[in-house]
Please model this.
Amino acid sequence: MHRLLLSLLFWTTLAIGADTPRQLMWKDLAPRATVDNPFAHLARDQLQWLSDVVAIRDRKARGDKSLTASELSDEQTATRKLEKAGIDVEALLAKRREMAEQKKAGAHAPNAALDGAIVRLPGYVLPLEITGKQVTEFLLVPWVGACIHTPPPPANQIVHVKAETPFELTGGMFMPVWVTGRMSTGTLKKALTMIDGSSDIDVGYALRASRVEPYRE
Model:
């Protein structure tokens, strides 16, 4: 009888362990060290100003003839606000270009050890399928504004999530969440619609979420 009880305890413990989510941070999704995020120290309004500058300069680089005097003035105003806050705009934009080049070099492979793992991961939501405030499919990203206010993170820093149960995004895209579910690896592209159009985003992970909840430490 004693041996039978020990055996039951062993298998019960093993079963519970197999279903216990492994709590991850974003660095765990990369198989090697990632580039430091140069935008991490910026406040929300500073990210918006930088986004305005980038949008106008990108249009200039493309030779966009539809730029108005008002838009050019907005770019100058946003630049002045950032410089007044002690932010080196040109250095940040150079870092942005560097990040883009590194992304092209392929430093975005997923961590194969996470394929099939049950995980719990915090992040921010970029909705792909939403009805009212009920979200069923989204991209999970490590910082607010990723893919919109800054260049997309590497593919191994973006998770395509399908929620088993719709959840309400009460705080919009500035609301951090915890996502729990089974992770799988494999690069794919997802179309993300933004204010100035849509773009295909490289994604390194997929996750079937059994639970999505507001972030609390």
